[in-house]
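Ticket #4471: structure output looks truncated?

Reporter: J.K.
Steps to reproduce: submitted the chain below (624 residues) through the standard prediction queue, then opened the result file.
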Amino acid sequence: MLKSVLLAMVGNIFFPVFAWADGDPTPTMSVNHTTEGAARILPDEGIAGEFGSWTVSYVVGDQGVETGGGIRVQLPDEWHSGPRNSATRLQTKNPMANNYITARTSNGNVKIALIVESESDDILQKFEKVSLDGRTERYVFVIRVLVENGSLEKGDVISVTYGDRTGGSAGYQASFISTTGLPILIAVDGDGDNNFELLNNAPTLTARPGAADEMWVNLPSQAVAGKPVKGIISLVDRGANPIDHAVILELSQQTGVATFPEELSVVPGKGYVQFEITPSETGVFRLKVRTKDFELESISNPMIVSKTEVKEKIYWGDLHAHTHFSWDGVGYQSYDYARYIARSDFLAVTDHSFFPEKEGLLRGLSDATWSEYTALANKYNDPSNFVVLQAYEASFGAPYGHHNVYFRSEPGTLEFPNRITLPELWKRLQKGKAITIPHHTAKMPIGVDLSTHNEDLRRNVEMYSAHGLSEAYDPSHPLAFEQSIFTSDAQTSKENMNLQDALKIGLRLSVIASSDEHHSRPAQPHYGLAAVRAPKLTRKKIFDGLYEGRTYGTTGAKIILDFNINGAAMGEIAKASTNPEIKIKVVGTDEIDWVELLRYQDGDEDFHVIQRWRPYAWDFDVAY
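Returned output as attached by the reporter:
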């Protein structure tokens, strides 16, 4: 039952006094729209992620608003997306707490009630709610203001304040992602029959990026001496949004020798600048960049410069990201963000598939949106520059858990986890043309029982994402689910759901890492990245690298890793009659504190560290 809050009037401003739940009828939405009255919001913009106060006002039209009538208000979904992978609640209970909502009317003779529909005490909310336009989504919050006694006449005003600060609240947190002007939905019930009509000509709300807080300098991981390559420098605000102001950059070499511009400019509205760099000597090159007018400095990822082209290059990407196509995602900028801001070589947008059991409920990818979704992936796919894999997520319940589905070239059919099981999905996929990769396998309450396996279609495990680490059971690990602030609270499973458990029972699985980002800003250098070795940057070759296990993952840093046993590289099989020679090469993005070598063999209870090196250097190379 929805919670209503009776409002007391102090100086014509209404504050919540007590809650009631019984007898509150569920409102209905008419298919008709109305021009009755007008609405505005002040201010009509804010800085992404910063607290402020915004007031939506509805001016009553000719027909007035009778007792039992009122308005319903819904901000853009993005304005309920916080820094974590959960919606941030609205609340009417604590005037000193964040995101406090109040309502008022200009007519002092009218009593109104304020309702936050589906209000909850949970700070972070991961359940879906129905929007004014019929969608079932996570980032939907509807405010209702009802006329309890009296009636409003033409020209009277109903105002809803998001982030009322008069009681000590910090205010309301603006959309964590920057956006252009997005419409606010307002629905009106003038005659009190509890049937609302959407108002035409709704106002819009903009979230502008803040000032530069971080700089990302990205180069290819490999280059050839004397041949130019392209680099990208991007600047983002504290919420990782590309900035919208001008910045002058000064470039210098940290290690290695190359030719490049000494100064570059980031222009307003872009957030990044591309440039050409030509290494002139073999070795490891790193670029240092600093801003000219304020203190911000960054060093690029390492670029290994060789005399000739290498057989296989390391390509970086995010294989797990969500957008507005998912019921729990927002945003539209994934492809450009990954390519130009995060400088990803490849991307897979993996929005949820979900068969709508009721007509009109859009809870993810469906037969109706599949062609539009796959067409976007084809549109942004640019071989040799930026590869977009065709993919989606099938989120099964226990014991199968969540799996992303990837296609080698063109997309196959869309399958729905609320209609089939994981083994049934595997039967519908073709070996060599599709793979499935499970993620947050050790995250409870829904993990992945890896003992249910298909060696042809499950070749990799997403060992790390922003949710946390699924390598082994260790709740105290700084990357464990218990330590993550990315989403709502979770625990690490103890049984058969982490990577080490799978390897101990003989499964051959390579690892990746990716973000599981739900705000259309994938491949950030904090949330997890997949490294894939491939001879060239195409869909088929990236897929083949995944299929053959030529992969590793990081928590976001583009660390170069080369690991082989008796000359067999990652993804290959080696046999040895004596102690094998293990070669490890690490080229870091900062000083390397330690490198560990783990082993498991028959008779051992668990994996254990057989060697730990402490290089305290940016580069490390050893034969063991």
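Triage note (M.O.): checked the attachment and the full token line is present. Residues 236 and 425 are 40 Å apart (CA to CA).
Status: closed, working as intended.
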